[in-house]
Automatic annotation (TrEMBL):
Name of one Pfam family that matches: HTH_18
Entry annotated with the keyword Zinc: no
GO molecular function: DNA-binding transcription factor activity; sequence-specific DNA binding
Organism: Paraburkholderia tuberum
Protein name per its UniProtKB record: Transcriptional regulator GlxA family, contains an amidase domain and an AraC-type DNA-binding HTH domain
PANTHER family hit by this protein: HTH-TYPE TRANSCRIPTIONAL ACTIVATOR RHAS-RELATED
Length: 327
């Protein structure tokens, strides 16, 4: 049975709980997509609740960092954060996500941060690390803290994993919404997220690697990834890997499953895709940041591999808004 507004009956009950505060602790170099999906899931849940009369948002998200202010993600997108020890409501349900990034190792040496994390841990209903965020929990001698699952309906990954553009933290956020608002709400959100997914270049370069690459090739891959914004020559990569150019080309193709040039194109186009979805920078600026001369060559490559343009790709992604409420 559903209410008159054709929304799940569970939403119209007076039992919808008080505000849930979801804090996301970030450090420089954090991976934005995983964080952005968590924000978007709670944003969509609030938007659905808002369609009911006399209902207020259920979730409030805040980005926190060690010092507050400007934090730069791994894809060079800037977000603004509050200090981790900012005041939060005492009576609200609290959730804590800990994003990774290069800066998290410095944070794990900050005694103030560790003390704060221990206090938050005891008062939070859930603590979920993302990637390197686990290092911070390890430094505090803590483990992830899961919500109790009283639904008994199986793994959320099995049910919604194929629909959502993320795993891990995104699926945890869906579980939270499911427990608060019901499975039908999660289905609506999952369907909405899946329609916003754009094609990925990851499937354009099939590899057939039988074993992990050697140390020299790993060095070459890391060097290319660190220099995507600069002109890169094969002899320079071979030199970085301490190999002759001929041996490097042969070994790279055998161990990675594609030529160095194809890998470099793959990496640059993947970076462009992330920046188009995560930022509002002009296409020309993104192209130059990713090692292309301007937006012209990038547009040709998008049409060749994805049958679309960078602008159309961005529109399809509907970049997740980064403005989140603060208190």
């Amino acid at each position: 049975m559903e209410s008159d507004n054709h929304l799940p009956l569970q939403w119209s009950k007076s039992s919808i709980r008080a505000l849930t505060r979801a804090d996301i602790l970030v450090a420089d170099g954090f991976a934005l997509p995983e964080v952005a999906v968590v924000i978007e899931i709670f944003h969509k849940a609030n938007a659905l609740i808002a369609t009911l009369p006399d209902r207020h948002p259920l979730y409030e998200v805040a980005l926190l960092s060690a010092s507050g202010g400007r934090i730069v993600s791994s894809s060079s997108v800037v977000v603004w954060t509050q200090r981790f020890d900012c005041h939060r409501g005492k009576d609200d349900k609290r959730l804590l996500f800990i994003a990774g990034g290069v800066g998290v190792r410095d944070a794990s040496k900050d005694e103030r941060m560790i003390d704060w994390l221990c206090r938050q841990y005891s008062s939070s209903e859930m603590v979920q690390p993302i990637a390197e965020g686990r290092c911070l929990l390890d430094a505090a001698a803590l483990s992830s803290k899961c919500l109790s699952d009283s639904n008994g309906d199986g793994s959320l990954h099995e049910i919604y994993g194929s629909l959502t553009p993320t795993s891990g933290a995104g699926l945890v956020a869906l579980r939270i919404v499911e427990q608060d608002l019901g499975a039908s709400t999660v289905k609506l959100i999952s369907d909405s997220l899946s329609t916003h997914q754009a094609p990925s270049f990851s499937e354009l370069f099939e590899t057939s690697v039988d074993r992990p690459p050697s140390d020299n090739i790993k060095v070459a891959v890391r060097w290319m990834n660190a220099n995507l914004t600069c002109p890169i020559s094969i002899d320079a990569v071979a030199e970085a890997a301490a190999m002759s150019e001929r041996n490097f080309l042969r070994r790279f193709k055998k161990e990675i499953g594609m030529t160095p040039s194809d890998y470099l194109l793959h990496a640059r186009l993947s970076l462009c895709c992330r920046m188009l979805g995560e930022s509002r920078l002009p296409v020309d600026k993104i192209a130059r940041h990713c090692g292309f001369s301007d937006g012209g060559p990038l547009s040709k490559l998008f049409r060749k591999y994805l049958s679309t343009t960078p602008t159309a790709y961005r529109d399809a992604r509907k970049a997740v808004p980064l403005r989140v409420s603060s208190s």
